[in-house]
Amino acid sequence: MKYTREQMVESVPQTGFFGHPKGLGILFFVEFWERFSYYGMRAILVYYMYDTVANGGLGMSETTAASIGSMYGALIFMTGILGGWLADRILGSRRALLYGATLIMLGHIAMSLPFGIPAFLASMFLIIVGSGLMKPNISNVLGGLYHKNDNRMDAGFVIFYMSVNMGAFLSPLIVGELQKQYNYHIGFLAAAIGMALALIAYVVFNRKSLGLVGVEPTHILEGEEKSKYKKVFSIAFLVIVLLVAIGIYSGFLTFNTFSIIVTILGVVLPIIYWTTMYRSKDVDDIERSRLVAYVPLFLASVMFWSIQEQGANTLAIFAAKFTQLDLNKVSGIDYLVPAAWFQSLNPLFVVALAPVISALWSKLGKYNPSTPIKFAIGILMAGISFLIMVIPAQSASATNLINPMWLVASFFICVIGELCLSPTGSSTSVKLAPIAFNSQMLSLWFLSNATAQGINAQLVKLIEPLGYANYFLFIGSLAVALFVIIFLLSRFISRKMQGIH
After folding, report:
1. Which residue has the higher pLDDT, 4 or 92?
2. Do the beta carbons of residue 70 and residue 255 sit within 8 Å?
3. For the chain: N or C, fewer Cβ within 10 A?
4. Are residues 444 and 314 in the same domain?
5. Are 350 and 166 in contact (CB under 8 A)?
6. Are residues 199 and 306 in the same domain?
7. Which tens digit of pLDDT belongs to each residue from 111-154?
8. pTM of this prediction?
9. How does it sit in the membrane (predicted)?
């Protein structure tokens, strides 16, 4: 490294944002608008894909739209691994963040243009690659603002996390209303403007606010290793281009076949990651035991995110088709609610319930549930959030619209599960990580979401043959069954964790 951590921290103004380093302010602003653009676009994306061309949509089937939505989420998490590697070895976190933000903005601009499928595909590619560069590196830059023993760091990450939820909460409300009042492309344009604001602010203020943090790669490629990776990436790029060209020319590469490829990657990548760690000579027997304990926790996480992430496709479509959105028929208020507004429920409930769940764990003290039990509770809540939807789904139709409070309740219950499992999972991944694979273990944790969404790309294809009621029953029952398994294995998992709680 060109600079030590101490030199980088000392280059940052250590006050200027509510008692925190000045750089937290710019990162807060950038992340708010990046999340605004991401969640705003995602709130109407599935509707844009399956709506008719006459209404400004792409005219896909609902199944294809839901499957592509899942592929999109899976690939964003997968490219985050490459984005972290490029920052560490070649670009540095700051340049990776800048390039990523630029690509995301261009992706949203492409989506705002009325050029159909070509613009849609270009947008997806740009946002996926851009998010892969930006998502892991903005958090890395944030951590670099503080000395390791600075007791402000945890509070800084809490403030930063609030920017995520604020952007995620506001964007569906604004973008959904714009889409309803005007059209899809105006909604996507709002997301593009949000990302442009983030990029402008970063370019103007990053040097003065962030100092030397993340300017240089931490483990730069040099000499023979640099030549080796150039050859590897060049060959890989040419092979991918060749395969894509052959696939398109032969008609083999369709949305369906690509979804299968993404699903396979989602399953194979974490297996490779885990096997590499388990078989490494740098991992001792205690660390291997902890890796074994991590397997059922990882599977529980996949099950949870499989349900949670369907809020943006399966529940989003259900909200638009079978939910009473005319408030005049529910509460006497003359207003038609945009279906996209339901996407604001998750961040709203996260902000409202996070302090409650945190206080509950603290109050329980020695009776605080073990890590496996918290994971079990998480997937149980997720399962219940789908199972309660069986009741309204049985009678829901285009002429018999359900009360929107069913969806509100489903999102609420799932968020309880999220707050039990998600923070615990991040912390446990760090605690169980072998010393030699400390950072890669957190990458493995993020892959649980990629695996879940990769699997969802296939699961959502069951909605049409099963119907919504049976689909909710099937997925919810799977979660409850896994809850029982994790609960019964909880003591075994705890023992394998070798003293980690």
Report:
1. 92
2. no
3. C
4. yes
5. no
6. no
7. 999 999 999 999 999 999 999 899 888 888 888 888 877 778 87
8. 0.90
9. Multi-pass membrane protein
Residue 93 lies in a domain: yes
Are 148 and 276 found together in one domain? no
For the record, the structure tokens of 487 come out as: 């609960």
How many Cβ atoms sit within 10 Å of the Cβ of residue 244?
12
Burial (Cβ within 10 Å: 0-12, 13-18, ≥19) of residue 103: buried
Last residue of a domain, one of 220, 240, 261: 220
**Same structural domain, 200 and 306:** no
Residues 75/128, Cβ–Cβ less than 8 Å: yes
3-state secondary structure at position 316: helix
- 319 and 421 in a common domain: yes
Please name the residues in contact with 437: beta carbons below 8 A apart, sequence gap of 6 or more. 277, 280, 282, 283
Do residue 77 and residue 214 come from a single domain? Answer: yes
Where in 151-275 does DSSP place strands (E)?
A: none
User: Greater confidence, 255 or 302?
Assistant: 302
User: Both 348 and 415 in a single domain?
Assistant: yes
Segments in 309-437 forming alpha helices (H)? 314-322, 345-364, 371-387, 390-393, 405-432
Q: What is the pLDDT of residue 6?
A: 85
Q: Domain span at residue 277?
A: 271-501
User: How far apart (Å, rounded) are the C-alpha atoms in residues 439 and 273?
Assistant: 12
- Can you name the residues that pair with 336 across neighbouring β-strands? 326
Task: Tell whether 190 and 294 lie within a shared domain.
Answer: no
Residue where the block lists tokens 């490779």:
272
Domain end call among 220, 242, 261: 220
- Show the tokens assigned to 81: 């691994």
**pLDDT band with cut points at 50, 70 and 90 for residue 1:** low
Is residue 228 domain-resident? Answer: no
Q: Show Cβ contacts of residue 299 under 8 Å, excluding neighbours closer than 6 positions.
A: 482
Residue-wise pLDDT for 174-195, tens only, equals 999 999 999 999 999 999 999 9
**Alpha carbon 90 to chain centroid, angstroms:** 25
Could you tell me if residue 266 is inside a domain?
A: no
Question: How would residue 476 be classed by pLDDT, with cut points 50, 70 and 90?
Answer: very high
Structure tokens at 417: 């599960």
CATH code, domain carrying 115: 1.20.1250.20
**Number of domains, the chain:** 2
Query: What average pLDDT score do residues 326-337 get?
Result: 84
Do residues 290 and 500 make contact, with C-beta atoms less than 8 angstroms apart?
A: yes
HSE-up of residue 94 (Cα within 13 Å, Cβ side): 20
Which residues 6+ apart lie within 8 Å of 301 measured at CB?
375, 421, 425, 445, 448, 449, 452
Classify residue 230: in a domain, yes or no. Answer: no
- Residue 311 is given by DSSP the state G
DSSP assignment of 451-487 equals HHHHHHHHHGGGHHHH-HHHHHHHHHHHHHHHHHHHH
